[in-house]
Amino acid sequence: MNLKERAKQLKTDIPALFLALKGSETPIIAKIFAVLTILYALSPIDLIPDFIPVLGYVDDIILLPALISLTIIFIPKETFEKYRIEAQNISQKKLVRKWYYAVPVLIIWLLILWSIIKAIFIRFYIFIGISLFHM
């Protein structure tokens, strides 16, 4: 399988993992790995930020397929094939856009932004306090 075919397969495997997560015949360990994989795939927070040249995308190119492959290992082959076929048959029109899936990611980003702003203001006030004290 060449790189282009593998990329197409990943586009099908991620929705198939989501379907497997909801399925009753999927083992618990596979569900745990499926949750981790889906959260990593949907999260804008990476182990290596994407703005770092080359390295930023290497973790997406290596880690995400590795997580998908690891999760698929724990799902019975027949079961995952069923979900893969179901994921291929889902059209974009049938996908329900649920905004509340974005809420946890948004909360994490707001907490990070709040922490950064708080740290900047604390350092700024400390700097002003020290410079006014020495005048």
Structure description:
The chain has 135 residues and is mostly helical. The protein is 73% helix and 0% strand. It contains five helices and no strands. The longest helix has 31 residues, at 103-133. The model has no long low-confidence stretch (mean pLDDT 79).
Indicate the percent of residues in helices: over 70%
Low-confidence stretches: none
Radius of gyration: 21 Å
Largest sheet: none
**Which structural class is indicated by helix and strand composition?**
mainly alpha
Tell me the number of strands. Answer: 0
Kindly report how far apart the N and C termini lie: 70 Å
Shape: elongated
The sequence of SSEs as H and E is HHHHH
Question: Please, what is the average pLDDT?
Answer: 79
Strand content bin: under 5%
Task: Compute the number of helices.
Answer: 5
Task: State the main characteristics.
single chain; 135 residues; mainly alpha; 5 helices
Present the secondary structure layout.
Blueprint: H1 3-22, H2 28-42, H3 55-74, H4 77-89, H5 103-133
